[in-house]
């Protein structure tokens, strides 16, 4: 009996020693977030408006969190490569991405490596885009109706550039074209910087995009035919909306921050609270204003609900346009 008790005591002692040895690693796993640099994926090329906004946000949120936030550009695939990267990223809060509207649309058009609802944590919504259709200053199209008349006279002869198949700048014009009864030739690019170079260089007749083209409109190099929001913009009050010109198309595109599925709720809250503080940063707000982007705040819960609604709504839009995947 004595031997049996000693063995039990030895096992207890061994277990206590093992727990003590493990304690440093347990404490390390539970250390305060964040303790090292965070990667912020920009699913667009350097040089465009989205890249500029994301870099402003990264700098600001890094100051709030007290760590470096490194922007990593992953352009292509209609802005969905950031969402795709979340599938394999560790759910530890150290990798986040911008979530453009296209991530809720493109999975209805083609097979993707991610499910925007099942594979992502929607942390916070911060801003959105103003969309417009522009032409070079020497274009014969002075108004949107001028362009529509020309397109009806020569179906498929007019071209426009956009940021990729299935992105909002693409589908906004496709929906407008359907309402106007015209056919335009669309040309996809990886990002807005490439499109601007093409239209300013005379390789494109029109550009559909966000207001990264605004400085060129203000300088007189480009002319804006119409915007695609619910109302005229504060910056361009004389430019009509597509809807007020008689084409029932409204395009708005909130964007926010996403992380992999399964991130600890406490870390999600820390990211949410830090990014929310960037909306008070004068440098961030100045960058929004430069590219005519409104502040559109949604909490984690509201943004998650928005994502589910939008995913379903985009399915209906894709089916209406006849662009849904057939297999």
Structure notes:
With 327 residues, this protein is of the alpha/beta class. The chain folds into 2 domains: 38-129 and 253-320, Bordetella uptake gene, domain 1 (D-Maltodextrin-Binding Protein, domain 2, 3-Layer(aba) Sandwich); 131-227, D-Maltodextrin-Binding Protein, domain 2 (3-Layer(aba) Sandwich), CATH 3.40.190.10. It is 41% helix and 19% strand. The protein has helices at 2-29, 49-65, 81-88, 144-153, 168-180, 192-200, 214-218, 265-278, 282-290, 300-320; strands spanning 38-42, 69-73, 95-99, 120-129, 131-136, 159-162, 185-188, 206-210, 222-227, 253-260, 295-298. Helix 2 packs antiparallel against helix 9 (282-290). The longest helix is centred in the first third of the chain and has 28 residues, at 2-29. The protein is globular. The termini are far apart.
Key words describing this protein structure:
327 residues; alpha/beta; D-Maltodextrin-Binding Protein, domain 2; five-stranded mixed sheet
Q: How many angstroms does the end-to-end distance come to?
A: 72 Å
Instruction: Please give the CATH class of the largest domain.
Output: Alpha Beta
CATH topological fold name of the largest domain:
D-Maltodextrin-Binding Protein, domain 2
- What proportion strand? 15-25%
- Overall structural domain count: 2
- The overall pLDDT, averaged over residues, is 89
Biggest sheet: strand arrangement: 2-1-3-10-4-11
């Amino acid at each position: 009996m004595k031997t049996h008790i000693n063995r039990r005591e030895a096992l207890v002692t061994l277990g206590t020693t093992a727990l003590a040895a493990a304690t440093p690693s347990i404490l390390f796993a539970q250390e305060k977030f964040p303790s090292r640099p965070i990667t912020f994926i920009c699913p667009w090329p350097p040089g465009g408006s989205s890249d500029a906004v994301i870099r402003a946000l990264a700098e600001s949120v890094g100051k709030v969190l007290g760590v470096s936030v490194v922007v990593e550009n992953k352009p292509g695939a209609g802005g969905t490569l950031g969402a795709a990267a979340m599938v394999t990223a560790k759910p530890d809060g150290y990798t986040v991405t911008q979530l453009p509207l296209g991530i809720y649309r493109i999975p209805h058009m083609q097979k993707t490596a991610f499910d925007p609802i099942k594979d992502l944590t929607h942390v916070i919504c911060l801003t959105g885009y103003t969309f417009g259709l522009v032409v070079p200053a020497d274009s014969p199209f002075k108004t949107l109706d001028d362009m529509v008349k020309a397109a009806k006279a020569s179906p498929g002869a007019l071209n426009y550039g956009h940021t990729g198949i299935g992105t909002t700048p693409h589908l906004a014009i496709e929906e407008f074209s359907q309402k106007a009864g015209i056919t335009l030739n669309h040309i996809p690019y990886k990002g807005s910087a490439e499109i601007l170079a093409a239209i300013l260089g005379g390789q494109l007749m029109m550009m559909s995009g966000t207001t990264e083209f605004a400085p060129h409109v203000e300088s007189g190099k480009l002319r804006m035919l119409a915007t695609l929001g619910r109302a005229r913009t504060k910056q361009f009050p004389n430019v009509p909306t597509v809807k007020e010109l008689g084409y029932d198309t409204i395009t708005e595109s909130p964007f926010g921050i996403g992380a992999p599925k399964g991130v600890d709720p406490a870390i999600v809250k820390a990211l949410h609270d830090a990014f929310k503080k960037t909306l008070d940063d004068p440098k961030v707000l100045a960058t929004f204003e430069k590219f005519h982007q409104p502040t559109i705040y949604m909490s984690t819960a509201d943004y998650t609900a928005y994502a589910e609604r939008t995913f379903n709504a985009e399915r209906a839009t894709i089916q209406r346009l006849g662009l849904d995947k057939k297999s």
